[in-house]
Design brief:
With 210 residues, this protein is mainly alpha-helical. It has eight helices and four strands, in the order ααααβββααβαα. Helix 5 packs across helix 8. The model has no long low-confidence stretch (mean pLDDT 93).
Amino acid sequence: MIPKNTNTRISVALIWLFHVCGILGILFGNREMFIAFTPVNLFVTFMLLFINQPKMNGFVFRAAAIAFIVGMLAEILGVNFGLIFGNYIYGENLGVKVFGVPFLIGINWIMLTFITGATTSRWVSNPWLAGILGALLMVVLDVFIEPVAPKLDFWSFDTPKAPLQNYLGWFLVALPIQWAYHFYVKEKDTTFSYHLLIIQFLFFGTFAFL
């Protein structure tokens, strides 16, 4: 898919540049420096996602707020009490933490919700079904992320691999957030979101399989 809008073209080019440089830098360059740059990369990508929303209004912010609050609460329960996802802790490469959970994780819940939700809206028009597919897509992406997260000091479980509970938890948390997104966000950005989703699979897939 080739972006038609100039801002979208620039945004897509930037996220490809950032992530490809990140992959090459971690593999062949100063690994620690590039990993430490992750919070900056995540925040800039998040800002570009919202710059590319077709219409910024209260409903978009409401969907983002729901994703952030629900995601952060679920993570806080997980880190401190072993609920929902299992027993795990966050490392030091994702920045400032709130009750043991990096603030950027809440941002990441927003970003993943928006890019998977926008992508599934291209496949089906029914918002309920699109929400289910979006939640499933988030779980599939997490399958790629989990083996890589401990290697990058993002987070780690008390078991060698993420438990099945983690993936079930992801789906149960993602589903209401996805439905909120499809209910509130009527005009969706599909181009930038589609590219960012592909990049996420490429980035984590590269390290998962190498």
